[in-house]
Amino acid sequence: xxxxxxxxxxxxxxxxxxxxxxxxxxxxxxxxxxxxxxxxxxxxxxxxxxxxxxxxxxxxxxxxxxxxxxxxxxxxxxxxxxxxxxxxxxxxxxxxxxxxxxxxxxxxxxxxxxxxxxxxxxxxxxxxxxxxxxxxxxxxxxxxxxxxxxxxxxxxxxxxxxxxxxxxxxxxxxxxxxxxxxxxxxxxxxxxxxxxxxxxxxxxxxxxxxxxxxxxxxxxxxxxxxxxxxxxxxxxxxxxxxxxxxxxxxxxxxxxxxxxxxxxxxxxxxxxxxxxxxxxxxxxxxxxxxxxxxxxxxxxxxxxxxxx
Length: 308
What we know:
Elements: H1 3-29, H2 35-64, H3 73-96, H4 102-109, H5 112-119, H6 129-146, H7 155-177, H8 183-205, H9 210-215, H10 217-238, H11 244-252, H12 254-267, H13 279-296, H14 300-307
């Protein structure tokens, strides 16, 4: 591995660590304030945190005269669509974390890596055999994680499973439009749209107060600035230096770090929703991680293209 690719992989690994540990911040935040309020404040903070990045990048592009793009109708239209999908996904995910552990939530969310190829069936794109194997392995893993011996399922697991479909749709829209627009500006707009919708919903349903929000400012700051702002910027930078397959695998490791951080904090005595994971649930996590890695393995054609 050359130094350029190693640099990109390490940057993406750091992004995955931030995303994984942000599940704990979400879980702790919704213990004090409603999911809608948490998402609204976090998303608006994430949007604001990207403004200095946009200013810096635009200033550099104007100096060099390369790649500068204004926020046109296309950017705002797709930013709004992404914001709506992100709103649906994060609301379901955050509500789910009220009832289940951050570790389980991280792994179930990561199912978007498998759902995306399945969506290809609707476009008459025949999946590779490894995709079908991945779906089977992931199904067994989800059964071990989410369904207990009494054949009942945690409602939080259901909400997060549904959220994975919205994240898959969000990723597909990003994949379609990202080559045509400024990625950082698109992210800023989507967080702004998601934040505004969430805050309107919070004002109507929850009537949020300032004091409870200030009580969880650490969770909001970490989730907003680090997860939304910093990690997304790291993703953009990291993907410049490495190939898409390696990038996808590294970013899916957020589920592993969500589990590891949960286990570490629970062992240190920090109370977390859902508590420690049972051996059965850990085995389910392992199977789901195997499925996620399998679905990212390149085809013969992709392998040849990467080695040429």
